[in-house]
Write a structure and sequence with these properties.
Blueprint: H1 3-24, H2 29-41, H3 43-54, H4 59-91, H5 93-96, H6 100-110, E1 118-124, H7 125-138, E2 143-148, H8 155-169, E3 173-179, H9 187-196, E4 199-203, H10 211-214, E5 222-226, E6 230-234, E7 254-255, E8 257-263, H11 265-280, E9 302-308, H12 316-327, E10 331-335, E11 339-340, H13 343-354, E12 358-364, H14 370-377, H15 380-386, E13 389-393, E14 397-398, E15 402-405, E16 409-413, E17 417-418, H16 419-424, E18 427-433, H17 435-450, E19 452-454, H18 457-461, H19 465-476
Parallel strand pairs: 2-3, 3-4, 7-14, 10-12, 11-17, 12-13
Antiparallel strand pairs: 1-8, 2-5, 5-6, 6-8, 9-18, 10-15, 13-19, 15-16, 16-18
Helix pairs in contact: 1-2, 1-3, 2-3, 4-6, 4-11, 6-12, 7-8, 8-9, 12-13, 14-19
C-alpha cells in the first residue's frame, strides 16, 4: 500500500468518525448535510473547517458561567416584567393592533417587558448617528456604557477618545465592551483609554487554539447607554467607513440605520449590557435600581427588545421575525445586508406573499462577501415565484437591518436575516410599535427603492448556468457562512 492510498484511507476513516460525531449532535439538518458533504468531498480540509468554524463541544462549558449569571438576573426580575407587560398590553391594545401575539412571545421568552414611556428617533447613516451620539455623551453625568462588535481606529475613534477622556475627568464612569474578533483596536489606543480611566474589556478574547469556539460566538451587538435614560442601537459600528462625508478616494457609500432611544426602554438595554459585562470581567456590577432611574421623557412610544445569542434556549430574534411576517396582513418590508434564511423564515415569506401580502426585500447589489452573496441569490427564484419582490441596492453597500409591517410595527437592530444572526451571535433588536417611527422608516425604505433595481422572475431565470451552479454550491454551505 503506497503513501497516497494510506492518506486517502485515513482521511475517509476520519471522515466517517466525524460524520458520526456531527450526526449525534442533532444539529440543523442543512448544517449537518453541509458538514457531511465537506468531510467526504475534501476529507482533511473539511475536518479542519469544522474544527475552526463549526465545532461547539465546549459551547455549554464556555457559556455556563454566563447562563448562571443571566438566570439569576432573570429570576429576580422575570415575574415582575411579565406582569408589567400584561398590564401594558391591556392598556395599549389599540396601539399594538394585531401584534399582541408578538409582544407575548418576547415577554415569555426573554422576560423583558413592553415599555411605554419612550421617545424614538431614527438616525439615517453615520452622518446622523455620530453627531447624535457625541451630543448625548457630552451630557453624561453618571455613567456611559458602550458595547460594540466593530471598533476601528480612525477619526470617529479619535473623537470618541477625546470625549470619553474628558468625561472620565469629570467623574463619569465609562464601561466599554468590544468584540475581540470584530474589532481592530490598536494597543496604543487601548492604553490611552485605560489611562483616561475607561474600564474596557474584550468580549471573549480570541486565542488561536480556541478559534473554533470563539470565532463563531461573537458579540454582534451595538449598544450605547448614557445615564440609563438615553440609548442607541442599530447597524452602525464605530468606524470611519460608516461616515459618508466626504466620499473621497473611491470610498463606498454606506447606507445604514440606527435608533436613538430615550425612556424606559433604555433600562432593557442596560439589563443586557450588564449581563455581558458581568460575563466579560471580574469587576461584577450588582443590578441596583441606581442604574435604572425613573425618568419621564414625555413620550408615549411603545418599545420592546428582542435579543438572543448562542446561550439562548431559543432563537428569539428569528422567532420575532417569523411572528412579524406571519402576522402581517397588508405589507412587510425588509432590508438586510446578508440574507441566508432558515426554512421557517423562507416559508413565512413565501406564505405571506402567496396570501397577497405585499412582501418586499432590499438586499445589496454588491456585497462585501462573494460567497454569502452567492448563497443568498440561490433563494431568490423561489421567493420571486411566490410573489416576493426583491430589489438590489445600487447606490453603495446597504447595511441596514430593518423590518416594517402594517403601519405601526418596526424592527431595527443588529441582527441580519441569516443563520449566523439567528443561532451563533449575540444580537439585539428594538421592536417599536409607533406610527411615527414606522412612517420614517417606511419613507426611508421607499427612498432606498429608488436607489435599487428590481429583479424580474424571467430575467433572473435567464442568468448564466455557471452562475446558477456557483450559487447552488454556496447554498449547500449556507449554514456555515
Amino acid at each position: 500500500m503506497n503513501i497516497t492510498t494510506i492518506i486517502l484511507v485515513t482521511g475517509y476513516c476520519l471522515s466517517i468518525i466525524m460524520s458520526v460525531v456531527v450526526i449525534s449532535q442533532n444539529r440543523n439538518p442543512s448544517k449537518t448535510l453541509a458538514y457531511l458533504l465537506m468531510f467526504f468531498a475534501i476529507p482533511y480540509i473539511g475536518i479542519l473547517v469544522y474544527f475552526v468554524f463549526g465545532e461547539n463541544y465546549r459551547k455549554n462549558k464556555l457559556y455556563k458561567k454566563k447562563w448562571l449569571t443571566d438566570r439569576a438576573s432573570a429570576e429576580r426580575f422575570g415575574n415582575y416584567m411579565v406582569r408589567l407587560s400584561e398590564q401594558m398590553l391591556r392598556e395599549h391594545m389599540d396601539t399594538i393592533e394585531g401584534n399582541a401575539q408578538l409582544v407575548r412571545l418576547l415577554v415569555n421568552d426573554s422576560k423583558l417587558p413592553l415599555s411605554v414611556n419612550n421617545r424614538v428617533r431614527v438616525l439615517h447613516n453615520g452622518e446622523e448617528k455620530f453627531p447624535a451620539v457625541f451630543e448625548a455623551l457630552e451630557h453624561a453625568r453618571d455613567h456611559i456604557h458602550i458595547e460594540y462588535y466593530i471598533f476601528e481606529n480612525g477619526r470617529i475613534a479619535e473623537k470618541l477618545l477625546e470625549v470619553l477622556t474628558r468625561k472620565c475627568r469629570e467623574g463619569v464612569i465609562v464601561r466599554f465592551i468590544y468584540d475581540d474578533f470584530g474589532s481592530t483596536i490598536g494597543r496604543a489606543y487601548l492604553n490611552d483609554l485605560r489611562a483616561a480611566g475607561v474600564q474596557i474589556y474584550p468580549f471573549f478574547k480570541v486565542y488561536f487554539h480556541l478559534l473554533a469556539n470563539r470565532n463563531n460566538y461573537r458579540d454582534h451587538r451595538k449598544i450605547i447607554i448614557v445615564d440609563g435614560i438615553i440609548g442607541f442601537t442599530g447597524g452602525i459600528n464605530i468606524s470611519d467607513r460608516y461616515y459618508n462625508e466626504p466620499l473621497a478616494g473611491g470610498k463606498t457609500f454606506w447606507r445604514d440605520t440606527h435608533l436613538r432611544l430615550e425612556g424606559d426602554c433604555v433600562k432593557l438595554f442596560q439589563y443586557l449590557f450588564f449581563q455581558n459585562w458581568n460575563f466579560c470581567c471580574d469587576d461584577k456590577i450588582d443590578l441596583t435600581m441606581n442604574y435604572f432611574p425613573d425618568y419621564n421623557c414625555k413620550g408615549n412610544q411603545l418599545v420592546q427588545v428582542a435579543y438572543s445569542g448562542p446561550d439562548s434556549d431559543r432563537a428569539s430574534i428569528m422567532l420575532s421575525y417569523f411572528a412579524a411576517i406571519n402576522n402581517s396582513r397588508e405589507y412587510v418590508y425588509i432590508t438586510t445586508p446578508y440574507f441566508i434564511p432558515n426554512e421557517s423564515i423562507l416559508n413565512a415569506l413565501k406564505n405571506a406573499a402567496l396570501s397577497k401580502v405585499d412582501v418586499r426585500l432590499i438586499v445589496p447589489g454588491v456585497s462585501d462577501s462573494k460567497f454569502v452573496n452567492a448563497a443568498a441569490r440561490s433563494y431568490y427564484e423561489e421567493l420571486l415565484e411566490a410573489g416576493v419582490r426583491i430589489f438590489l441596492y445600487r447606490k453603495g453597500f446597504i447595511h441596514s437591518k430593518t423590518l416594517i409591517a402594517d403601519h405601526s410595527l418596526s424592527m431595527v437592530g443588529t441582527a441580519n436575516m441569516d443563520i449566523r444572526s439567528f443561532d451563533l451571535n449575540f444580537e439585539v433588536n428594538a421592536v417599536v410599535f409607533d406610527t411615527g417611527t414606522h412612517r420614517d422608516l417606511k419613507n426611508a425604505f421607499m427612498a432606498d427603492l429608488k436607489d435599487s433595481v428590481e429583479i424580474g422572475l424571467e430575467q433572473w431565470r435567464s442568468r448564466p448556468r455557471l452562475r446558477k451552479m456557483f450559487e447552488s454550491s454556496c447554498r449547500l454551505l449556507s449554514a456555515l457562512l
